[in-house]
Structure formats: structure tokens, C-alpha cells
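task queued by scheduler; priority normal; single chain, no ligands, no partner chains; default sampling; output format set to C-alpha cells
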Amino acid sequence: MGANLEHADDFPAINHTLAEDRHTGGQSPNPLWSGTRDAWQRFSRWRRGRPFTGAVLIIIAAALVLYSPLALLRFMFLPGSMLWSALLVGLLLLAMGVIQLFAPAHALVTGAVALVLSLVSLLVALGGLGFGMLLGLAGGALGIAWRMGENNAGRTNRRIFGITYGTSLAVLALLVFLAAQGAIALAAEIAVPFSIHSDAINASSMHLYPGVSAADNTSPVGVVQMNATARNMVISKTFASPIGNVTLSMVAGKTTPVTLNGLTLDASSLASDSAAFQNLSINAAGNGFDVHAGTTNLSNVNINSPYVLINSITLPGLSISLSR
């Protein structure tokens, strides 16, 4: 007996086959395309069920904060080193991002902790060159503002996000203000070439010896270790941009000197109009060349360096500018 196809709606399987044939021209669907499409749909459903953007921002922030301490692990156990604190903050920030990604029910807690860690990173790691700190603040605020909605799809409360992110930026501005007043000290690790100028550097326990740069482990440098104060200190870095070369300058210590404790500096060049030393000793035995001085006074100093580690620095009168 033949089937009556006059009423096609009575045969949904036949309808589906006919529609699929019309769509594919009678050919079977590409299994690779189907598999890719299904995988993307599953990922999209998984992503909508958690504060995905916030978690990713926190993980990127953690990577930026961790960059310097991981590159300088061999200096972690030097007396007074603060690298361990930068490493700890970065690892905790990474943990918050991973937990927020895979355990979205705890997004409120992980977001709040990420906010605090991002602010602390300013004090122990210069906030991952600033970018890591800002990304961490945004990711933490997104975690706090995220709520699970219907059909396992989350949503971000924009009002809560705005209030949280705005408040965290206000706290950040307060920390920067206190640093500019010299009221709080920062720790810093910089592993990119830059220049330093200071009208005067007065140092104690200075140690100078030849070595290779901690930035690349190949470039010959003079390694300088000391505690110091610097008057009218300018740290500058020139980099290429789509609009030409741009110079980033940080100026501090015009009235009250900058203080630098636990300074380790790789100097590719160092020039000073005058230098005065007390309790100077020079050891040139064998292939070595170590210089020690109880006190060191340098005037009109210019230093080019690929790397610096500072356990504690205060920056009274801090100002930052960009110029072409």
C-alpha cells in the first residue's frame, strides 16, 4: 500500500528531510561544519552561565602582575626583597579568576577579593604596569555585579557594576595621591630599558660590580646596589606609537627627595658631573672588580638601565606626562 503524501504536515520526519534537502541541495551536511557549530553553541551556553568577561579580565590582570616577579625569581630571597609579595598577589589574583570562571556561584566573593588584590598590586608590583591593576578592577566589578538569571544564563547589573568600579577607581586615586605625597611606599620591578636623571643622588652602603643584566641574562652591565635619596628624579621611557615616538616621563622629588630602599640597578651607562665617596674600597683581585662605599654623593646624574628592582620607594610630588 502506498502512503498518501497529500497532507505533508502529517509526516514531520519527511518534512524535515525535504527541508534539509532543499537547504543543502540534496547533499549531506558537512560533518566538520556541523561539529564546529555544535561546539560553538555548547561553548556559548557555557559562557553565558558565568561571568566570563570578568574572569578573563582578572586572569589577564594576574598575568601582567606576575610578569616581573616570575622573570626575577632569582632575586626573591635577597635581603629585604619584596618580590615574594608581588608573586603572592599575582597568584591569588589568578586563583580568583579561575574560580570565578569555573565556579560562578562564588562570583561575588571572587570579584570582591580580586578588587582588593588589584589595589594591593599597586603597592607591591606597580599594578602590573598599571594595566593589570585596571583590568583587575574591571574584572572584579563585573564579578560582583553578575547574577544568574533564567535558563542558566547570567546577567550583569550595570548599576552595581558602575557603583563598584567607580568606588574602586576612587580608592585607586586616593592611593596614587598618597604615593605622590610620599605618605606610602611602593615596591617596583621594571624590566624594560629606561633612563633616569637626578640632580643629586645621596646613597649609603653602595656596592658596584660588573655583571649581566637581569632583563635578558646576556647584556653586560654595572650592577649597583644601595639605599639612596634622589632629588628631582626623572624616569623616562621612549617608545614607538602610530603617531610617532612618544616619551613617558615620571617626575618626583622636586622639593622632598625620593627615597629608594633596597635598590638594585643594572646600569648600561652612568654619568655624573661629580662624585664623592667615603669609606671607599676597591677589590680588583683576579677577574673581579668590586667597589664598596659607605656613603656616595653624585650630582647631575644620568643613567641608562634595562632593569631596576626597588624594595621600597616613596615618590613625593609625583607627576606623569606624555610628550612627543
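post-processing summary
- Residues 189-323 form one domain.
- Residues 1-24 have pLDDT under 50 and may be disordered.
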